[in-house]
Amino acid sequence: MGKTIFITGGASGIGRAVAQRFGQGGWFVGIADIDEGGMMQTAAMLPSGRSSRHKLDVRDRSAWDAALADCARAGGGRIDVVFNNAGIPIGGAIADLAVEEIERTLDINLKGVIFGAQAAYPWLRASAPGSVLLNTASAAGIYGSPGASVYSATKFGVRAITESLDGEWAEDGIRVRDLMPGFIETPLLDHAPNRASNEDIRSRVRGAGLEITPVSEVAEAAWAAVHGERLHTLVGKTARRLAFASRWMPGALRKQMRSAERPLGK
Length: 266
Fold this sequence. Notes:
alpha/beta; Rossmann fold; seven-stranded parallel β-sheet; NAD(P)-bd_dom_sf; SDR_fam; oxidoreductase activity, acting on the CH-OH group of donors, NAD or NADP as acceptor
């Protein structure tokens, strides 16, 4: 029997690239998103008859149950991997962020991951051992940077969820992993970091001299994470440098952050 992966945020960006990678690997791919047009485009890039589409707002707990059940029916009765990937960016000085922006980011980036893990558990337990919950964390979950406090909080939370469930689900034979990418070449970079900003994230990243990593690298990292033993998978030079500095040069890193320009700010 073939394997099935369920991917949130599958209409574009990282979700689409991971869908393509697993489709190429012979997996059945469940694509979940609120963007129906984007999901159709992703499905068109996959092998015929080897995908399903599921409209899903990750903030809706009951919708998770329905989407996973539909995916399992379409894919042969099982789900082997759930990729908790849906997320949105936010940046800027915390004093300048609107309450609605903060709440939406927390709901999608953190609550959505918690709901996804909870809903995924019975499916992953049924297909264990070897089933995987894969979460999209971020380099922002390694060390908090100026202008990214709310986003960093959500990604530190995703990292904590990964570490907690890695222990909690071990006896069930479910593996839990996360990806920690830096700035990735996706449509999210073309968004403004907050409502008060007129400049997109891409411009801020380039202005700060940071590299933008091809999305294909994240797709390969996801494949490796699902098939490997590493708990946290760093993706891109920024993530690797930040992890190295936070471990071996924390004082220097703190000094750098305190004097840094705010690449996601106003």
